[in-house]
Design goal:
This protein is an alpha+beta fold. The chain folds into two domains: 105 residues, Helix Hairpins (Orthogonal Bundle); 308 residues, Bira Bifunctional Protein, Domain 2 (BirA Bifunctional Protein, domain 2). The protein is built from twelve helices and 15 strands. It has an eight-stranded mixed sheet with strand order 1-8-9-10-13-7-6-2. It has a three-stranded mixed sheet with strand order 5-11-12, with no helix packed on it. Strands 3-4 form a two-stranded antiparallel ribbon. β9 and β10 form a beta hairpin. It is elongated and about 110 Å long.
Amino acid sequence: MIDPNLVANDPDAVRASLRRRAASEATLASVERLVATIARRRAAQTERDQSLAVRNQLSPQIGGLMKQGKAAEAEELKAKVRTAADRAAELETEVTVLQAEEARLLLYLPNQVHPETPDGADEHGNVVVRTWAAECRQMSGRTHDDLAVALGMYDPDRAAKLSGSRFYVLSGALAKMERALVSLFCDMAERAGYREVLVPYMVTAESMAGTGQLPKFEEDLFKLTVELAGQPAYLVPTAEVPVTNLHRDEILDDSALPIRYFAFTPCFRSEAGSAGRDTRGLIRQHQFHKVELVWIVRPEEGAAALETLTGHAQSVLEALGLPYQTVARCAGDVGNGGAKGYDLEVWLPGQSAYREISSCTWFTDYQTRRLKMRFKREGDKKTTLCHTLNGSGLAVGRTLVAILENYQQPDGSVVVPEVLRPYMGGLERIAR
């Protein structure tokens, strides 16, 4: 969440950022409610503290008056103490209610957009900053789903029989290629200095709220019918959630930063907002695999970390020889928690278009304020909120799609990218 002090002290800056995001009028109006709520909460806290000060100041005097035989004066002070104590109790209740409302409103406000993030209302405002093309081929064969079916290694009908739409069953060399891609991505992340973690695939509502998936995006999640640790529970939409939550409620040593993790997990998304989009093939699924890269850094390291993180994701596409472009996401497309970010879009001949395969995002302290994730600089008494970043390195299913469409041959076979061959027992070509 954003800093409530910023909302209270500079609401114009908050509104300016929201307008850059093309936020709704309802979201803009919530800033006014939040400013008023914070002001009322602060006023109530001040009056509560004053009432407690009166109680604390007068209470010790009562005993002395009684000893002096001044019972009437003592009773008068007792009445004042009771009045002050009762008022303090009333105000404490009011403060609690206002704090809850303040927290609720803050949870729905997006992060402040970074000044370097381009203007734009949606993905059409994104700016291409880099293009890398081994060979940006045009469509001259089958789309990935038709090709995979022709190879006899993709069975959408049986997948639908098992689980309904937006699931897939792979077999043979394509199943092996998906597993090989996971191993390649993990090995490359490890060589780049990331530490591997194996995390749960189910998390609590607190964990979801910590990284910003709740409450705003609940409709995109798969909620479980049983609780975990006494809380509502969900299947992970990305490894970002459990990995970033590893250091929730912790004060990290300055010497430990930066921290860089990677994790392979299945990801589960309801795709509630994508009805009718990418209904065929492997592009948009309820369940898919992904290797996620997560950074925890000092605030001054965030900008450089984003460039390095994005470079690591780019290097995976280059190792596979897949044409791609890097786009700077505009203010309307950077994501609710993001301040600045890039998308990597791989070329898909079957669509004659670039499609997103990785998002790399700098969240500043938006997540860590929710997570209470801090660090203490050497010699400082106060703690400082960490900054977080994450990026896909990469989404496995979409990488498989890109390989099928970019490496298919006129005879319907698919050449295995050279970097993958050691992971596939030396296999050089996939054919029926």
